[in-house]
Amino acid sequence: xxxxxxxxxxDFLFFAFVSLLFGVxxxxxxxxxxxxxxxxxxxNSYLSKKKQYDEQTRIVQKLxxxxx
Length: 68
Hints:
By secondary structure, this protein is mostly helical. The protein has one domain (2-67). Helix content is 91%, strand content 0%. It has helices spanning 2-22, 27-67. The chain is elongated.
């Protein structure tokens, strides 16, 4: 059990450091963090759709080249 306590303490220190780094608790930094998360979500969505469209384009090209 002592190892578990050390691991929990390490996790607490990590999150405390990250929250201080990002200034959690400051309204302005919370808003910027929310904006950043929104931009990250949009970027991930864009990249996944682009990858999907690229794959579909390759499939269509492969099918069209095999037909002709």
